[in-house]
């Protein structure tokens, strides 16, 4: 890295051609793995599988993903009461911040993204700035934050609050992240009194500063306020299909949605990449894949699906996903915000069509992660390279 690189409040890892993020973005399409660090992974079904929330299992998945050439892994974060979503969902789970960051010493190339609810706790920006700078050096610039504001009422109540209004949360997160970026950039002591929250600090100084301007910043959103936030701050925006989880609905709604997200960044003189979370049901033939999907549905955990439908949430991203559909809704047995089902050739074609609809990358989940990831690597990755989506 050039030590004399000019740093600013708005410095991004993409300003450094040698940064791990810049290297990953050379790929035509980003490829990530959405780690199942919570019990049940992404699917509400009792069909037997190896998927496990334990750190050892997820570390093995991450190392396999890196071996296959994946660009990043994600850790999901939630705060649940006992049986919050039923027995196959979140009964046990690792903290996304600690678990994902702990993978730094076991990997060498793959980006590690920790989901952090920046308004809970409450976090103090000096804590996260220092932790983030430390992890940036440990990982050599491979660590990042998926900034989450929290959309479930009971999570706010867990920390002693009433639910914060949707757009207000993004105002608070905007201030928090703006200050984080300054803390990672300032070369002198810096003092600040929050205008949105109760925190303040005097003569803060973070050293060493991050290697490439700041850690990678991600956020997941579908709302106007969230998209505006992404345009100002994020390198990668985690999106859903606005119209629903089946491939046809996704392809019809994503072009306008992804364009809107990218225009928000352009308006701020920036660029963002969009990342979609498909759950892939893959077998060697279409018939076998459909049978696999049906088996997942036939063993649906209705208690967990019902638990999710009772959650009080003001999230905008899932509004187009109808409840009650065990295949394609937000409360489905299969899971994911888009379900891709088929042979290697069909999965490749679906990913290609989603890319043409404006999706820059895929944060993939599976029902049975270890064997399904192995099959994906053997049967789909070569086809993605043939299609020009990977090299």
Describe the structure.
The chain is α/β, with parallel strands linked by helices and 391 residues long. It has 13 helices and twelve strands. The strands form two sheets. Strands 1-2-3-4-7-8-9-12 form an eight-stranded parallel barrel, surrounded by five helices. Strands 5-6 form a two-stranded antiparallel sheet. Helix 6 packs parallel to helix 7 (224-233). The longest helix has 20 residues, at 247-266. It is globular. Residues 1-9 have low confidence and may be disordered. InterPro entries: Luciferase-like_dom, Luciferase-like_sf, SsuD_RutA_monooxygenase. It comes from Nostoc cycadae WK-1. Keywords: Flavoprotein, FMN, Monooxygenase, Oxidoreductase. One of its GO terms (molecular function) is monooxygenase activity.
CATH architecture: Alpha-Beta Barrel
Taken as a percent bin, the fraction of beta residues is: 15-25%
Distance between the termini: 25 Å
**Total helical segments:** 13
Uncertain parts: 1-9
Give the C-alpha Rg.
Answer: 20 Å
Name of the CATH superfamily:
Luciferase-like domain
CATH-defined fold name: TIM Barrel
The major β-sheet equals: 8 strands, parallel, barrel
Which key terms come to mind for this protein?
TIM Barrel; Luciferase; 391 residues; alpha/beta; oxidoreductase; globular
Quick rundown:
This protein has helices at residues 20-24, 55-68, 96-101, 125-139, 153-158, 166-183, 224-233, 247-266, 286-298, 302-309, 344-356, 369-379, 381-386, and strands at residues 30-35, 72-75, 111-117, 143-148, 190-193, 200-204, 216-220, 236-239, 273-276, 278-282, 338-342, 361-366. With 391 residues, it is of the alpha/beta class.
């Amino acid at each position: 890295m050039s030590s004399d690189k000019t740093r600013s409040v708005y410095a991004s890892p993409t300003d450094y051609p040698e940064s791990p993020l810049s290297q990953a973005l050379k790929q035509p399409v980003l490829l990530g793995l959405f780690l199942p660090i919570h019990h049940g992974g992404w699917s509400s079904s009792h069909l037997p599988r190896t998927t496990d929330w334990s750190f050892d299992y997820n570390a093995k998945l991450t190392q396999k993903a890196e071996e296959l050439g994946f660009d990043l892994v994600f850790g999901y974060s939630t705060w649940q009461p006992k049986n919050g979503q039923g027995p196959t969902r979140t009964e046990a789970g690792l903290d996304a911040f600690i678990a994902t960051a702990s993978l730094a010493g076991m990997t060498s190339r793959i980006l590690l993204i920790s989901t952090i609810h920046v308004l809970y706790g409450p976090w103090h920006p000096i804590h996260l700035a220092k932790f983030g700078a430390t992890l940036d050096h440990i990982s050599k610039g491979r660590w990042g934050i998926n900034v989450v504001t929290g959309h479930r009422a009971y999570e706010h109540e867990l920390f002693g609050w009433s639910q914060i209004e949707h757009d207000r949360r993004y105002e608070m997160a905007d201030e928090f992240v703006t200050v984080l970026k300054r803390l990672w950039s300032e070369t002198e002591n810096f003092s600040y009194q929050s205008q949105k929250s109760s925190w303040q600090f005097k003569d803060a100084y973070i050293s060493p500063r991050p290697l490439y301007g700041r850690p990678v910043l991600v956020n997941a959103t579908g709302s106007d306020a969230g998209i505006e936030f992404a345009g100002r701050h994020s390198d990668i925006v985690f999106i859903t299909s606005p119209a629903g989880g089946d491939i046809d609905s996704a392809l019809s709604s994503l072009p306008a949605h992804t364009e809107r997200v990218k225009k928000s960044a352009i308006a701020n003189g920036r660029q963002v990449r969009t990342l979609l979370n498909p759950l892939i049901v893959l077998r060697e033939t279409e018939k076998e894949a459909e049978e696999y999907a049906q088996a997942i549905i036939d063993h649906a955990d209705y208690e967990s699906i019902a638990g999710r439908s009772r959650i009080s949430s003001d999230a905008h991203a899932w509004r187009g996903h109808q409840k009650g559909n065990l295949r394609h809704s937000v409360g489905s047995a299969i899971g994911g915000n888009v379900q891709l089902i088929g042979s290697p050739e069909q999965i490749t074609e679906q990913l290609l069509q989603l890319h043409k609809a404006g999706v820059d990358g895929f944060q993939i989940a599976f029902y049975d992660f270890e064997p399904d990831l192995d099959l994906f690597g053997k049967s789909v990755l070569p086809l993605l390279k043939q299609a020009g989506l990977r090299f």
